[in-house]
């Protein structure tokens, strides 16, 4: 059954939220959703760009209380 | 108060020494006790491996006896932990002994895992163990020209290594007089050439100036050794004649085997450095799951904050400060130039143009490290 994982990358400059997502997605199952929390506004662009290139699915992206929430689904 | 430190790397060693000095009187009076359990009797200066891999440092310069670095009041055993029984405040070691504690610090570190990507271990070089750095130096000095591809796994220790290894190899081949026969193909997992945007911007200018080609959004999927090609998760490929890898890393097997954290990373509170769900277990350095650099510098600053807190708990019953995410990284930008990045959870880095003075300070730090490990710097 698909699960939802949260990756708290707030305050991450190095290695960065997208690197955290790439590291964690390998451990997730196909169909799982991963929600990245980031205070780096670049993540709202970086993550969808990578998701599109590698072929996963964007689910949601929004900002709340200064934190970006970017949700993707692992498709392969 | 029994404080047990598991791991004798940068974080564990600085913590133990800093604590021993802060708790000098308590240790003398028998009110506190510090014990360190390590897997090795020698302490390795891991950043030195980069220099070994280009023939600039001898392997024996990487090591000191661990006991020579520790304050005499610290009880030290080469006896790695095999079982953590956190509910009973004890660990069991390889020799079969059991150690109890009031406060436990886990600082077991991480390891490069090239074998997690098909074909990578057999077809690449890296500078993450002594044997691998020596082999890298052999292949680098025998290299007569062709494409040097740098391929980067995630997560990895020391975020500056992909850039540093590229710059130092560039200058090495230049000094050998064969740079015109060498093409550099740098690849990186995200959409710029370094995870820190200001560092990536600076490095891009350097790459353009030096003629180093790069491909971003490139995550290694497998290496085809027969055809000398690295395939990416994103569907592209890169040919190589010499493949220099920054392999993906995992925490130590004992962490995963004891169910303390997936892939060997222990869920850790970013400010208190407590293991999530535990009041008397702390985590240091690479072993944490924190979204910050896996580097000796991170372990260093975490250890300083934690030493202050653990000493305060012994003396006052309460911690006195938070870890703020501080990291300081040198960045070698060639054979005679370097810069640095300093940042924390709230302040991004602003690296300056590299110069010779920072390079020579880094050279000096290669020796000062031993004072740093002793908790003096």
Automatic annotation (TrEMBL), chain A:
Family matches, as CDD domains: SirA_YedF_YeeD
Domain of life: Bacteria
Residue ranges of every copy of the UPF0033 domain listed in the record: 7-31
SUPFAM superfamilies recorded: SirA-like
Family to which this protein belongs: Belongs to the sulfur carrier protein TusA family.
Record protein name field: UPF0033 domain-containing protein
Lineage: Bacteria, Pseudomonadati, Pseudomonadota, Gammaproteobacteria, Chromatiales
UniProtKB/TrEMBL annotation, chain B:
InterPro entries: FAD/NAD-bd_sf, FAD/NAD-binding_dom, SQRD
Matching Pfam families: Pyr_redox_2
Domain of life: Bacteria
Single GO molecular function: oxidoreductase activity
Gene3D superfamilies reported in the protein's UniProt record: FAD/NAD(P)-binding domain
Segments forming domain FAD/NAD(P)-binding: 1-288
Protein name (database record): Pyridine nucleotide-disulfide oxidoreductase
Gene source species: Acidihalobacter prosperus
